[in-house]
Structures are given as structure tokens and as C-alpha cells.
Amino acid sequence: MTDETPNPMLALALQLEAASNNPGQLPPASDALHSRILDATRKLLTGLETPESQLMHLAKAPVAHGVLRAALRIRLFERFDEGPPTATDLARRCGIDVALLVRLMRTLAAIGIFTEPSPGLYAHTIKSQTLRQAEHRAVVQGMAETATLMTALPDFLQTHHWQDPVDVQPTLFGFAHKTDQTMFEWFESQPEQRAIFAAFQSSTAALAVCQLEPFLRSLLIAPSPSSSNDSSDGPREVTLVDVGGGRGAVLRQVCHELDPPPHGRIVLQDLPKVLEGVEGGERVEVMPYSFLDPQPVHGAHTYLFRHIFHNWSDGVVAKILQNTVAAMEPTSRLVIVDLVLPDGGGASPYAAFLDVSMMAFGGMERTEAQWRKILKNAGLQVRRIEPLDALTPGSDQVMEAGLL
Fold this sequence. Notes:
alpha/beta, Arc Repressor Mutant, subunit A, 7-stranded mixed sheet, two-stranded antiparallel sheet, 18 helices, 48% helix, 13% strand, transferase, WH-like_DNA-bd_sf, methyltransferase, COMT_C
């Protein structure tokens, strides 16, 4: 009788196969166990792949990026379910050559977007099903369009003698498009790109609604720091100013649903073009405004900046903060929702990629130390920094500051 020593690697392989065949048994994305499994799986994959294959995948990543953008351009994900999912039918519906369709679908299937059960016949995967949803599609397309600027990154950095391109003109965006205009100015002559960016912004907010709604509610119902039991103090005139808040769909919804309604004025500010056609209703005041100009609303309880500062260099952020600080009173607070990079390294790939992506517009992601420094230089003292969603790894952080 022979004693067989169980192979731990074989046992692990069987466990992984069982888990992948029953995805419904995996913990939800908000679960801490999910994060541990995902982190361990990534480390295992890194250990199994050779350095050569990893580097080849990285070098060829722009191919997948280009094919995905092409699929979005021909509206493949909207048209996939309009008839039989064959190469001939898909090509006809998308208005492209059959041979080209086959080559695009081959790549999409290879990266897990669609499968090809038999030659020329395609089926959905979880990824392609996700891209059928307009909001997810808009976010992916917006990020993909921005990523095209990275092809010009080496030449841009070389032009600036490999110095960190802080407060330089043109930015990477202008360098790639051969223009001195900012992205927002350039959009005025590019309606298709402007529409992609607008859809990206609104969809990003819509997908984050589960985080935004409770956060905005907490800002709207929180008592003013100056409130006391003396009713003569009364509520502040302005409860919240959402600076650069886009079209404010979530804010307007929350304000409409709050019962009792929020005290004081709720002000939604953004550029005139952004706010065209937006009606705030009885509870939200829509105010065209550029945060590069002096803040016209003085003494508000809260000035909110969500995903604003990472688009700009320290010099521009200092100007925006200066405009806001000049309007604040001792009891006012400034609230920032943005990414915070770890001071000691170990940033996630997404955070690191996003930081370089922001370089395209002259912006950057910042560490906690950098945030504290720029706020202190503006005359503000940080009161708290905490996750917007404690259950989501890599969540945005909420930073609250008051006057020094």
C-alpha cells in the first residue's frame, strides 16, 4: 500500500476552480473577505506568471485599449442583442466589414469581454453585460478617451527636460492636441468629445449615488458649528455651496426628498455651459460660477469640493482655496472629497494610474501630507480625514477643514 502525500498546489487549484465555477458563492465586493481574496489572487498570479509574460502583457495593453474604444465607437454593446450574435449579423448592425468584426471580437474575447463558443458565434460575459449598461459604458469610455493622451507622455516629459510638469503650459492635454486651450475650452469646438465627458461626469455621480446620498444628507442636516440652544441664533443663511458640482442630480434629489427640508439656502455652482437647462427647484439655487473667480457666497456653513482639486496643479488649487477662504467665516467649513495617496508608498495600481492621468490636465493625486500642507498654506486647519465609504477599499477620503 502506497501512501500518497497530498499536493497542496493541486488542492489549491481545485479550490480555485470550484470558486470560479460558482461566482455566486464569493463574498460581495464590499466585504473585507472579498478584498483579502482579491489581494491574495493578484499576488498568486504575479508569482505564477514569468516576468517576461507580465512585461509583454503590459507592453501590449494599448492594443486592448484601442480595440475597446473601437467597439464603443461602433456601439457594439448596444447592438449586440438586437439579433443573432453572429459575425455576419453583428457586422451588419454595426456597419463594418465582417472580417474586421471578427478580428475585433477575437481580441475582445481574449481579454474576457464576450466569449466565442464556436467560430463566428459570440456570447456575453459579465464584463460585456456590464458594458450594456449606459452608465458603466459612459464611465469606461470617458476614462478610455483620456488615456489616449498617454501616447504623447514621453515626448511631453522630454520637452520639459524630465522635470515634474507642474504649472506648465501647455499641459499634456494641450501638447497632445497641439493647442494652448484648456480641456474645457477645447470642448467648445468638439461637441462629440464634450458629450463623452459630460456623460462620464453624470454617470460617475450616478454610480456613486449609494455613497453620495448618505454623505450629502449628513452635510445638509448637520447643525452649524455656531448653533446653540439659544434660538435667537437662528439657522445660517447658506447651508451648503456645492462648488463645481456639475449638474447636481444627486444633490437635487436628496434636497427634494429631505423631510423636513434643509435649513437655509443650498447653492449649486458650476460653469454656465454645464448648468444650461438645470432647474434647481424650490430647494436648490443654481448659480453659474467659476471657482477661479472670487467666491460670491459669503459665510456659508459648508463649501463642498468633490473631485475638483485633483484636476489642478498646486498653484491653481491655492488660488481656488484663496477665493474660498476669503468668503468663509470662523464657523464655516470646507469639505473635500478626493483620493488620498498613502504617504509611505503602496498605492494601488488604480490610484497610481489616476495620478499620471491627472498630469494630462496639469493636476495630480496627493498624499495626506501634501493635502495638509496645501490646506495649511491656504490658512486652513484639517479637522478630520476619513473614508467616504469605510467598506470599500480605495474609497475616496472626506477631508474637513476650518479657518486657522
